[in-house]
Design brief:
The chain is an alpha/beta fold and 491 residues long. The protein is 38% helix and 21% strand. The chain binds adenosine-5'-diphosphate.
């Protein structure tokens, strides 16, 4: 078993799935949860299949009429209790997250706060779901719009943000009056189950939230069940673009509403008028957070000729200062990658770039002392189109920096991607700021900042990075149907 700090509340280490308000093994063999830092088992959870998914859908369907009939204020009060419990148990939630995901404890704590913020935000929004009375074109009829919850929802989530990717979906769903079945990533089910435990304690009724755990193979079967179900009216998925395509296809026969947060390949442009030190700081934050394993992490840096040498030198110095280690150790800023396949992908991207002429300025290998899945923070200069790293999502701690000489050239290069999630640029010229922000074909643009996510902002992408928005005042719309009432006979 992997050593991690003793939890203040041992009951938060839940090792059963949560269906219809009850903890269940489902009579299935266990799925081991591995700490990527040391390969030890943190705990084991049930490896459920489509039978359990059906049970969870049934439970959610039974819970829907009563839950959706409550007032928004009533739902908000329960959600507020859930939020308070998350914050009160933040240390334990963070410890569980670092144990199963590997990120530094300080990042896990940040994610607990970030994840909880969606519950707080949508609890507040629950009270503000209002319809509309539109101006009528008939004197004897009235045109009224009401909003209603879409019904039973499903969510499939990834391992890189084990709490916030779940709360970003559950919170707007339950605030709107929907009920939901969540299938967390096979690598990180313990954070999801701890969340369910706190929802249970907050008094959220049985069946409103269900968590079905499964390994990678059963995840496919469960995905099929959730997509094929005529009861499930909405599927929200965060993960890779290839899986997003599969799920979209599987949702077609039942014409389900879908929200997709898929892959990214963020460009980060440093113009010649930028504050270089601020750009380096933003670059480090955007690239190395969570060991580069986020869909909004920069994958391509573009630095202008005039400041190129200074930028790459300072970026390499910054990367070399990042302390790598077990996420529980003091001062660690970068943990392990999630699994061996992730390390292999990073190695492949780095060796391909070097073979094709990139210069290695920092890192470039598995950490010599720590070994395993610990990869050194890496900086490659002189990267160019045609290298794998310039088109495939790396999902690792590698910066690739390319030189450019004018605005039109760099905007074309930045937009030359099938992805359209996050983008970043640094400039102090107000005209350029507006021009570039409008021309970047991305759902999100960080201007003079490398950190863009919070609960108030609409998170989401265009092109093959997905559809729909999470968080913000727009996030609730995903879970609401608009109904038009044509009221006649008004004489
Ligand atoms: P990653 O490569 O980051 O693990 P994936 O897209 O493979 O991203 O996985 C994200 C989530 O999607 C996980 O919960 C995983 O179990 C689930 N998943 C993967 N493949 C499928 C599939 N074919 N059908 C349904 N869910 C899937």
């Amino acid at each position: 078993m992997s050593a991690f700090p003793p939890l203040n509340d041992l009951k938060l280490l839940r090792t059963q799935a949560y269906i219809d308000g009850r903890w269940t093994d489902g009579g299935r063999p266990s799925l081991d949860v591995i700490n990527p830092a040391d390969n030890c088992i943190v705990g084991s959870v049930p490896n459920l299949d489509s039978v359990a998914a059906e049970q969870a859908i049934d439970a959610a369907a039974r819970a829907f009429p009563a839950w959706s009939a409550r007032t928004g204020k009533d739902r908000a009060n329960l959600m507020r209790k859930w939020f308070d419990l998350m914050m009160a148990n933040a240390d334990d939630l963070a410890a569980l997250m670092t144990a199963e995901q590997g990120k530094p404890l300080i990042e896990s704590k940040g994610e607990v706060t970030y994840g909880a913020s969606f519950i707080e935000w949508f609890a507040e929004e629950a009270k503000r779901v209002s319809g509309d009375v539109l101006a009528s074109t008939w004197t004897n009829r009235r045109t009224v719009v009401i909003k209603q919850p879409v019904g039973v929802c499903a969510a499939i989530t990834p391992w890189n943000f084990p709490i916030s990717m779940i709360t970003r979906k559950i919170a707007p769903a339950v605030a709107a009056g929907c009920t939901i079945v969540v299938k967390p990533a096979e690598q990180t089910p313990l954070s999801a189950l701890a969340l369910a435990e706190l929802a249970h304690r907050a008094g959220i009724p049985a069946g409103v939230i269900n968590v079905v755990t499964a390994d990678a193979d059963n995840a496919v079967a469960i995905g099929k069940t959730l997509c094929a179900s005529t009861v499930v009216r909405h599927l929200s998925f965060t993960g890779s673009t290839p899986v997003g395509r599969i799920l979209m296809e599987q949702c077609a026969p039942t014409v389900k509403r879908i929200g997709l947060e898929l892959g990214g390949h963020a460009p980060f442009i440093v113009f010649e008028d930028a504050d270089i030190d601020a750009a380096v700081k933003g670059a480090l934050a955007s690239k190395y957070r969570n060991a580069g394993q986020t869909c909004v992490c920069t994958n391509r840096f573009y630095a202008h000729d005039a400041i190129y040498d200074e930028f790459v030198r300072k970026l390499a110095e910054g990367a070399a200062r990042i302390k790598v280690g077990n996420g529980f150790d003091q001062g660690v800023m970068q943990g392990p990658l999630i699994d061996d396949a992730a390390v292999e992908k990073v190695e492949r991207h780095v060796s391909d770039a070097i073979e094709k002429g990139a210069r290695l300025l920092a890192g470039g290998r598995i950490h010599p002392e720590l070994g395993g899945r610990f990869y050194e923070p890496t900086v490659l200069a002189d990267t160019r189109k045609g290298m794998t790293i310039m088109s495939e999502e790396t999902f690792g701690p590698v910066s690739a920096v390319t030189r450019f000489s004018n605005d039109a050239e760099v905007i074309a290069a930045a937009n030359d991607s099938e992805f359209g999630l996050a983008s970043y640029f640094y400039s102090r010229d107000i005209g350029r700021v507006w021009r570039v922000a409008e021309q970047l074909q991305y759902g999100m643009v960080g201007i003079n900042t490398g950190a863009i996510s919070n609960e108030v902002a609409p998170f989401g992408g265009i092109k093959q990075s997905g559809m729909g928005r999470e968080g913000s005042k727009y996030g609730m719309d995903e879970y609401l149907d608009i109904k038009y009432l044509c009221m006649g006979g008004i004489e």
